[in-house]
Write a sequence for this structure.
């Protein structure tokens, strides 16, 4: 979901004098051919772009600083709307093909384009928003300039335009700004654009709009990373608007809409948004169905993961809906490291649940999660191994006594030495050592098992090389070693020199 979208819209018209005749546009170009001899280049460029759009060849357009400077002057408010519209279109086209030509004048260009995006004259608003859309694909500093010059407010005004194409282009530009960085996203969220987009979703004509893909993409960029400040009513309206799109035939649209649901479920507002997802009729069932769709599986996993990260009751709703067999199937078949990490993250959150939820997780009818966690924990990917470590630690900490015996009798403990390495997150090491302490409190007979799996050697490494590990965890590791020595003394007598 990262990345920005440069606007490469191809207009359905041919740029020739024959086509322009009688439309009034011919007068525009004749006028500026008379005033500025350099503007003849524009007519030639239009013909070149027409060829570009027809045969798809990437043609390099040679530009001069004089030409760029000329059009920047035409863009100023002292010229007529006709001149400004011509200049806006020039920069709109230029920014698609050659951004380096405008580097030196970008600040003035941004100011003028933002001014023009407020002017409802011909296609000037659309072209100005289009140019800003592509400027927002530049390095971060350019997005900061757009924001500093009140570009978001201007684009918001433009988004209120009744023209669907202008509105869509303005929202697209705002989406590119939001996707640049967290501070830009926050600046966009402070505007009212999300409310505007949600209102568009609920209009009857939206389902037939050719612009809905870009609008939903922009919405997901605004929501990306979680949305702690979205009012509950707005969250519910967004979920209701997104639900029909989860059935859309457009794969990209369906995927972006699913990401939108995932981000809404990650709103950090004490589970209220998660409850809204669960209470929206048909939404959870559709998310589970989207796990079978390769175009939406990643987004659906994130949405389900955010729900499972809620409280025990919310997690139970997902389990009752039948998520475990689907997770088991995906984890068994997936070869993508990022997808496996997401899957094991969900498993680790289920393993942090109640006794009955841990029992359900390790019910063989739902999949062989022990074997899959062992494979994940012994794999090369650090992220997947870390999540497997959390799953094992959570399960050993929260399982019933009977299930603890079952887990220790399985191969699950094989994961432990692969996680108790000095390059592992210290927090995870501390959690896993604590979980093992709980296991031995319940039954000390597992100390020999720890030795056979190499866990005791991991404890020794913590004492030797674990200066970065907290003192309590080091004390626990030392206690394990001492208990093992005492057990050997009881069985074989004290060691003699």
């Amino acid at each position: 979901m990262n990345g920005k979208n440069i606007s490469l819209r191809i207009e359905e018209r041919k740029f020739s004098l024959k086509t322009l005749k009688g439309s009034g546009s011919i007068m525009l170009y004749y006028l500026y051919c008379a005033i500025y001899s350099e503007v003849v280049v524009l007519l030639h460029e239009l013909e070149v772009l027409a060829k570009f759009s027809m045969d798809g060849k990437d043609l390099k357009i040679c530009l001069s600083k004089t030409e760029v400077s000329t059009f920047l002057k035409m863009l100023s408010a002292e010229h007529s709307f006709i001149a400004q519209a011509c200049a806006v279109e020039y920069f709109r086209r230029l920014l698609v093909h050659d951004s380096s030509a405008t580097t030196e004048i970008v600040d003035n260009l941004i100011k003028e384009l933002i001014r023009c995006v407020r002017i409802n004259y011909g296609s000037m608003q659309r072209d100005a928003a289009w140019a800003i859309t592509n400027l927002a694909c530049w390095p971060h500093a350019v997005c900061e300039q757009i924001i500093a010059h009140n570009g978001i407010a201007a684009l918001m005004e433009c988004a209120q335009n009744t023209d669907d194409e202008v509105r869509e282009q303005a929202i697209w530009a705002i989406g590119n700004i939001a996707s640049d960085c967290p501070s830009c996203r926050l600046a966009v969220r402070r505007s009212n654009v999300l409310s505007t987009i949600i209102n568009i979703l609920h209009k009857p004509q939206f389902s037939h709009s050719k612009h809905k893909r870009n609008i939903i993409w922009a919405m997901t960029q605004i929501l990306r990373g979680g949305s702690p400040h979205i009012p509950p009513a707005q969250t519910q309206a967004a979920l209701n608007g997104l639900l029909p799109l989860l059935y859309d035939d457009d794969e990209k649209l369906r995927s972006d809409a699913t990401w939108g649901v995932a981000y809404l479920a990650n709103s950090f507002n004490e589970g209220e948004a998660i409850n809204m997802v669960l209470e929206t009729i048909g939404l959870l069932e559709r998310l589970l169905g989207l796990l079978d769709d390769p175009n939406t599986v990643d987004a659906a996993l994130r949405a389900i993961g955010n729900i499972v990260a809620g409280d025990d009751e919310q997690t139970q709703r997902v389990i009752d809906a039948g998520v475990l067999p689907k997770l088991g199937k995906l984890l068994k078949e997936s070869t993508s490291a990022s997808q496996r990490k997401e899957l094991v993250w969900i498993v680790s959150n289920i393993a942090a649940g109640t006794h009955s939820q841990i029992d359900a997780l390790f019910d063989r009818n739902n999949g062989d999660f022990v074997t899959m966690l062992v494979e994940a924990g012994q794999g090369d990917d650090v992220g997947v191994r870390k999540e497997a470590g959390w799953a094992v630690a959570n399960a050993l900490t929260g399982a019933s006594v009977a299930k603890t015996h079952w887990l220790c009798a399985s191969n699950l403990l094989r994961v432990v030495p692969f996680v108790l390495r000095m390059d592992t997150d210290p927090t995870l090491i501390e959690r896993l050592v604590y979980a093992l302490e709980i296991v031995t409190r319940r039954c000390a007979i597992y100390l020999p098992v720890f030795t056979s799996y190499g866990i005791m050697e991991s404890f020794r490494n913590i004492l030797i090389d674990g200066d970065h590990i907290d003192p309590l965890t080091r004390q626990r590791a030392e206690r394990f070693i001492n208990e093992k020595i005492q057990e050997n003394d009881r069985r074989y007598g004290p060691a003699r020199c």
In short: The longest helix spans residues 471-492. Residues 346-497 form a domain with the Leucine-rich Repeat Variant fold (CATH 1.25.10.10). The two ends are 64 Å apart (CA to CA). The chain is about 65% helix and 0% strand.
